[in-house]
């Protein structure tokens, strides 16, 4: 027969866990609203800077110049070294959010195992995972993904950009888990360098005009900003996705805790009923023996 005190203790413990997960869900929901707004605004800017870059690329070509002349756009060089930047969270309790990013990064490492791969990890979860797996880490950044900052994002990507210009690395790939909507996230694998401009559907609608002698300067400056902002946007997007995943995980945990409390309460009532039945039988048996 189950011990009533033990079951009661378990019920109390699970109820406390339920309160904690419910509170964490509410916190994540509040944070998600702010992060979602920031992600949408950043997305609009990132999309616009991509369009401007594409238009200037077209203008550059229209002036009988090739964008491949600029280092950032050179796709013809032999790929010997690849930089992979992996964005994870600093905290857990967010379902498979980190696991999906780490799985994708591991697959990329395996895919490019014949190359010299330099792994840059953002977030404690990614750092701890790859250290445990014995994977060499080129650079690591902690307490960045939880508080996205343009200055820090620029510092992170500047290392890769300088090495790309000096031919120390030949490709820069960014892996992150991005925000899709309130209930889902999407793994994103973006090749930051070399840059591939978007195709302009209607070139005649372009409002940008540049002088031939200015095109290269503007192009190089804008490309640098484009790469920096994409790094920053990945951090913002990842944070929104993290809060979304945590909100879902805590909601599921709260529901499971509630179901567990119901099951334990049922067990407690059954055990209590057994105790009462046993006591009644003993009383009746005692009365019968006195007759």
UniProtKB/TrEMBL annotation:
One BP term from GO: proton motive force-driven plasma membrane ATP synthesis
Alphabetical list of CDD domains matching this protein: F1-ATPase_gamma (cd12151)
Superkingdom of the organism of origin: Bacteria
Entry GO CC: plasma membrane; proton-transporting ATP synthase complex
InterPro entries: ATP_synth_F1_ATPase_gsu (IPR035968), ATP_synth_F1_gsu (IPR000131)
GO molecular function, one term: proton-transporting ATP synthase activity, rotational mechanism
Membrane topology label: Peripheral membrane protein
Keywords: ATP synthesis, Cell inner membrane, Cell membrane, CF(1), Hydrogen ion transport, Hydrolase, Ion transport, Membrane, Transport
Compartments it resides in: Cell membrane; Membrane
Subunit structure: F-type ATPases have 2 components, CF(1) - the catalytic core - and CF(0) - the membrane proton channel. CF(1) has five subunits: alpha(3), beta(3), gamma(1), delta(1), epsilon(1). CF(0) has three main subunits: a, b and c.
Functional description taken from the UniProt entry: Produces ATP from ADP in the presence of a proton gradient across the membrane. The gamma chain is believed to be important in regulating ATPase activity and the flow of protons through the CF(0) complex.
Family: Belongs to the ATPase gamma chain family.
Name used for this protein in its record: ATP synthase gamma chain
């Amino acid at each position: 027969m189950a011990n009533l005190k033990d079951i009661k203790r378990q019920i109390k413990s699970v109820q406390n866990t339920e309160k904690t997960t419910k509170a964490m869900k509410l916190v994540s929901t509040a944070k998600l609203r702010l992060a979602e707004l920031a992600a949408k605004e950043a997305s609009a800017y990132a999309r616009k800077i991509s369009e401007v870059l594409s238009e200037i690329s077209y203008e550059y070509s229209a002036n009988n110049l090739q964008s491949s002349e600029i280092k950032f756009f050179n796709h013809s060089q032999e790929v010997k070294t690849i930089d992979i930047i992996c964005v994870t969270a600093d905290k857990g309790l967010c379902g498979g959010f980190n696991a999906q990013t780490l799985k994708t990064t591991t697959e990329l490492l395996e895919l490019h195992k014949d190359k010299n791969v330099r792994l840059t990890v953002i977030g404690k979860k990614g750092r701890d995972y790859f250290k445990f797996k014995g994977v060499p880490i080129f650079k690591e950044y902690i307490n960045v993904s939880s508080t996205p900052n343009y200055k820090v994002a620029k510092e992170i990507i500047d290392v890769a950009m300088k090495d790309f210009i000096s031919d120390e690395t030949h490709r820069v790939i960014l892996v992150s888990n991005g925000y899709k909507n309130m209930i889902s996230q999407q793994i994103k694998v973006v090749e930051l360098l070399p840059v591939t401009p978007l195709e302009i559907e209607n070139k005649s609608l372009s409002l940008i005009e540049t002088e031939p002698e200015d095109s290269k300067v503007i192009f190089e400056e804008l490309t640098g900003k484009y790469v920096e902002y994409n790094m920053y946007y990945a951090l913002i997007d990842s944070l929104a996705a993290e809060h979304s995943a945590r909100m879902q995980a805590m909601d599921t945990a709260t529901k499971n805790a509630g179901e567990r409390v119901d099951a334990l309460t049922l067990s407690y009532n059954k055990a209590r009923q057994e105790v009462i039945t046993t006591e009644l039988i003993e009383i009746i048996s005692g009365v019968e023996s006195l007759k």
